[in-house]
Amino acid sequence: MTDHLTRGATFQRAAAGALAPITVQLHRGDGVKSPWEQWINLDVRAVERAAACAHAIEPDEGYIESAANARRRVGLALLACIRDDPGLDPLSAFDRVFSERSDWFSRPLTDWLDTLGSGGRGAVAAEACAYAAGVAAWLGSNRLAAVRFSGPSEHLDWELPSRTVRVRGRCDAMIPRGVRPADRRLLVVVGSLDQADGAAGQAALAYTLARGSVPLRVTVLAPATGSVVIDVDDDRLEEALGRVADAARSVVAARFGPEAEPSAGRWCRRCGRAGECHQGDAWLATNPVRFGGLLPSR
Amino acid sequence: MRSLLADLGGGTSPCAPVDPDAVGELLVWFRAECEALVSGCDPAVLPLRLPKGRISDLLACERGTVAALGEAGLTEPLVRGRLTDVLVAQHVTFGIGTDVELEVHDALAAAASDVIDWLEQVSEPVRAGVWAHARATAAGLVRDWGPIERSWWPRLQERLTVPVADGALVLSAQFDLVLGGAPTDRPWVVLEAKSGSVADRHRTDLYWYALVATLRHGHPPSLCATWFAGDGGLVPVPVSLGALEAAGQRGLAALARLVELVEDRPPDARPHAGCAWCPALDRCEPGLARTGADQGVTELIDAGTRW
Hints:
The structure holds 2 protein chains of 2 kinds. By secondary structure, chain A is α/β, with parallel strands linked by helices. Chain A folds into 3 domains: 3-61 and 152-254, no CATH class; 67-141, no CATH class; 263-298, no CATH class. Chain A has 10 helices and 8 strands. In chain A, the strands form 2 sheets. Chain A has a 5-stranded mixed sheet with strand order 2-5-6-7-8. A 3-stranded mixed sheet of chain A has the order 1-4-3. In chain A, strand 7 and strand 8 (226-231) form a beta hairpin. In chain A, helix 8 packs across helix 9. The termini of chain A are far apart. The model of chain A has no long low-confidence stretch (mean pLDDT 92). Chain B has 3 domains: 2-71 and 152-262, Lambda Exonuclease, Chain A; 76-145; 275-305, no CATH class. Helices cover 51% and strands 13% of the residues of chain B. In chain B, strands 1, 2, 3, 4, 5 and 6 form a 6-stranded mixed sheet that branches. In chain B, a hairpin with a 4-residue loop joins strand 2 and strand 3. The longest helix of chain B is centred in the middle third of the chain and has 22 residues, at 124-145. The radius of gyration of chain B is 20 Å and the shape is globular. Chains A and B meet through helix 4 and helix 7 of A and strand 1, helix 4, helix 5, helix 6 and strand 2 of B.
């Protein structure tokens, strides 16, 4: 077995050993198929939230389909078309993908796309083409041809044995192609490079666990700003696993107690406990929002 | 617009290419000046942000800039601007059909836009005025732009964010429409669409956009231009080294003021043409004096520049 596979298997065991004791209350019998709503995803958002404050919870806003929310999923389909048909422009790729939408996308997204008139289609095309053009411009035509783009709803999922818990990550593209080749490089597209370290660590860990193979490096691309290349070594994977374990503790504490101690900061502005957390409310009262550095009331 | 894109696509450039070495030196100078200005700032107030609107505001009047911070809610001018953006997107992607209202509403719904609620809540005359503007804009796009070839790879609302001084300062821009450039073999064109009529003051915004784009990609766009839906005017701005330097000097002047304000210097009031729309006007003596004295002029400005 080659090194990247040996290390992948090692990290799978390490993850199971680290997460199983924390998630005892989320037990499921071996081979038992649990309903999807019982599953807890330890994804990059859960990890970031727990790293900020173990007491924090997601605001209960509900998910609605929109052009902005469809941007990446439709954009990935456009990129796959452009790769396979060099010379194709994003709008023509959109026409093709839209006409074959039930083949490309999940049922909920397809159903939503079905409801759109010409204006709605234009709004989705504008978002998806901007995403695709940003990635294509960075890759360049030579690298574009060699890339495997993720499917629109594809995740890097690893289910913790005997638990209703999965470690979840995502990447937008991989190179070289293949199931789990050596020297695999991942591309993760983000909105801001402030998120680069966390996004790279989570993607590397999720890929390692899901594929049983350690990638060589992760490139994090924020088309608006630039890109950073992050090598994947054992330290980075262990750090990412530690953050996932913290997220697991936070999730278990939120459901079964005892409640974790709050740690107030700017994340309180987007916390579902705002208004019922003394520390968070005190922080918000003494830290008014600045607008690019300026305070509004002078 | 048609002839402009035809000329650019055919290899005719409106200005001489900018020397890459000189551009590189200019970027080094600008970054160093920014770094020097923000180096003493309290980390608690960082990052400072300097979008184009804030530059104009700070240079016009500091007190008005601070008073307008956090002002939420849509206004008629904002909605006209948003609808212009929607119509540009629709024109560039699939073309605008005969029922403009239906297509715009459909696009706003797909974007989960708050404009829909605003349109339902305003009075009938305001709503009628907004839709009349939308129909006129749609007609202008068809008349002035014609179809945009897909090989330009049009990108709507493209954002650029440039961290400076290790992220202590964030420069940003959002272009209404970008054509050509890196993913294509065509010149790189940045287009702004304004809902009003031609006004020269938007030229400085384009220079700033050119500078931010150059900071992000290391080389300037071939051309920046503003199209005005109000009268169909097109103002192209060739991007020269001098234009980039002017944008840098202007940005630094605004940044110097921003740094002083976050360090608790009281904001100065400077009467200017925009006083009539300032939320602090009722408690600003210089502003009241200006608007009182210039009432007639202000009305002219209102008619000519608000949309």
